[in-house]
Amino acid sequence: MRTVPDDERRARLAVRHALAPGHRVGTVEAAVAAMTCLHATEPASVHLSAHARSGATRDDVLRTLHRDRTVVLQLAMRRTVFAFPRDLLPAVRGSAAARVAAQLSARLAKEVEAAGLAGDGAAWVAGLCAAVHERLRTGPATTQQLREAIPELALRLEAAPGKTYGGRFPIAPRVLSVLAAGGGVLRGDPAAGWKVSRPFWTTTEDWLGTEPARLTAREGYAEIVRRWLWSFGPGTEADLVWWLGATKGAVRDALDDVGAAEVRLDDASVAWLHPDDTDPLPAAEPWAALLPALDPTTMGWRGRGFYLGTLGPHLFDVNGNGGPSAWWDGRIVGGWTQRPDGRVVVVPAAPLPRAARKALASEADRLTAWLDGEIVRSLYQSPLARSHNASVSPGD
Predict the structure, then answer these.
(1) Domain of 148?
(2) Number of C-beta neighbours around residue 79 at 10 A
(3) Is residue 226 a part of any domain in this protein?
């Protein structure tokens, strides 16, 4: 059993994640495929992630998502919205997304019963989902338009009573999440620009022209794991369980079905490679990249020491969400933020060598030009960037 050292793992990022200049790809579709899928909880992240790997413009991303529809937004692993290659939907819908849909539906049904809205919460949720789907058959609608058409969607449920994070929350997003994970509806055209999560909801059949097939859960997990290993391998069982939001049993079955190759990491833990990707990869030239919040390179593993070192508390919030990150030669070395005029500024976590400062400054200039004055206000700004912003006066 060979050992894949951390240096090689970082070298793989340059190639597999299309981040080093000589390995970047030419299209949005290729950028998405390189990563298996892109995080899309924040719509701007899809644009920034695709641009970092392909140089794509915002119009390129919008065309891919909303005209060509070769990349599709789907709620799936860990109750997160992802941008998937269209050909991966059958695997996702039958496995990770189906698991999330079942979890969300059961939880909502329980809360509906606890609130006294219905004696049979499951039947109530199913009926409301059917009503939403029927309304969307007449045409796309925003969440607000759906509330106006279906009064039950305007109801609120009490959550976490007595907790600081508790309160009364609208039921409409909960119902739409059940439908979105289940595959009945999709996020269609944006209703409020490329940076805002306010879609026109649409039926899957209307958006894609057909209802995608569903693989079995085992087949689906195997296909996702096969692609994940090519993008992120080597990875451990714990990495995959976390990333997929799946059980150990499902991950072990998938690794077996794929024929994954067992290797060791520098810390002697067992990890896995794609069966056709077992040879060492040569190191790329040193490279720099500025990636958005929740970028898949930042969020691809549970075990992040080989590229993050001790910077976790500086880049990740208490819930484990990674903020905008600055990379140098396979490691996170800081974050980035924007000035009020839109200029992108790198915030290093520690002093950097001259080559890194120069390369990251060039990336900052490139991103500033691409944003062209637009400000991306991520909910997941890193503690490092927040501290930096608080220390800078408005005139700086």
Answers:
(1) 96-208
(2) 15
(3) no
CB 36 within 8 A of CB 306: no
Q: What is the DSSP letter of 197?
A: -
d(CA 125, CA 123): 6
Scored b (16 or more CB within 10 A) or e, 156-175 reads: ebeeeeeeeeeeeeebbebb
Are the beta carbons of 378 and 323 closer than 8 angstroms?
yes
Number of domains the chain is built from: 2
Can you read off the two tokens belonging to residue 263? Answer: 């290797």
Per residue in 276-308, pLDDT (tens digit) is 999 998 888 999 999 999 999 999 999 999 999
* Alpha-carbon span 369 to 59, nearest angstrom: 15
Q: Are residues 106 and 203 in the same domain?
A: yes
What does DSSP assign to residue 180? Answer: H
Question: Does residue 91 sit within a domain?
Answer: no
Give dist(CA 30, CA 27) in Å, integer: 5
| DSSP label at residue 2 | -
Estimate the share of the chain in helix, then strand, then coil, as percent rounded to the nearest 5.
50, 15, 35
Residue 31 in domain: no
Task: Determine whether 17 is exposed, middle or buried from the number of CB atoms within 10 Å of its CB (0-12, 13-18, 19+).
Answer: buried
Q: Quick check: 324 and 52 in contact, CB under 8 A? A: no
Boundary residue ending a domain (187, 208, 229):
208
pTM of the model: 0.94
Domain-located, residue 23: no
- Indicate the burial class of 113 (C-beta count within 10 angstroms; 0-12, 13-18, 19 or more): middle
Q: Are 380 and 317 in contact (CB under 8 A)?
A: yes
Yes or no: say if 212 and 85 are a contact pair by the CB < 8 Å rule. Answer: no
> Domain ends where: 208, 238, 269?
208
Question: How far is residue 95's CA from residue 88's CA, in Å, rounded to a whole number?
Answer: 11
Per-residue pLDDT tens digits for 301-357: 999 999 999 999 999 988 899 999 999 999 999 999 999 999 999 999 999 999 999
How far apart (Å, rounded) are the C-alpha atoms in residues 197 and 337? 21
**217 contacts 98 by C-beta, under 8 angstroms:** yes
Interacting residues of 310 by C-beta distance below 8 A, sequence separation 6+? none
> What residue ranges in 217-369 does DSSP mark as E strands?
261-265, 270-273, 288-291, 325-328, 331-338, 344-348
In this structure, are residues 380 and 335 in contact, taking their beta carbons and an 8 Å threshold? no
Q: How far apart are CA 143 and CA 173, in angstroms?
A: 8
The tokens describing 341, both together, are 């005029």
